[in-house]
Design goal:
The protein is mostly helical. It has a domain of 78 residues. Helix content is 85%, strand content 0%. It is built from three helices and no strands. The model has no long low-confidence stretch (mean pLDDT 81).
């Protein structure tokens, strides 16, 4: 890619940084809070180096790597983060249904002929 001036390179890198920083919302909250700033900094360095060495193809390689990380780390982590409450509620409901069935069985067994 031919650059008219350094401003076009800066603009491309700045847009990449902003898009990446915004996409960190895909990561689990705790990971994002603890490492988000470092992740953006590392991404910035990778993009700058790749772009200065290889231009647009280098930029695309970094984005491909970031996208793969979103799919393999961020999204599964985010889903697991949300699944914990869902699993806990489901388990609690299942336990309640089982317990009510068990109490019904005990009452029926213990009270055979109690006025029926």
């Amino acid at each position: 890619m031919t650059h008219v001036n350094g401003n076009s390179v800066s603009a491309v890198l700045e847009v990449s940084r902003k898009v990446y920083a915004t996409s960190l919302v895909l990561y689990p909250n705790e990971l994002r809070r603890e490492f988000g700033a470092e992740m953006v900094e590392v991404f910035d360095e990778q993009v700058s180096e790749a772009y200065s060495r290889s231009g647009f193809p280098g930029l695309l390689r970094v984005w491909f790597s970031a996208t793969r990380e979103f799919v393999t780390i961020a999204l599964p982590g985010r889903l697991a983060e949300r699944m914990v409450p869902i699993v806990a509620v489901t388990a609690a409901l299942a336990l309640m249904v089982w317990f009510s069935g068990y109490i019904g069985y005990v009452m029926e067994t213990a009270c055979r002929g109690c006025g029926h």
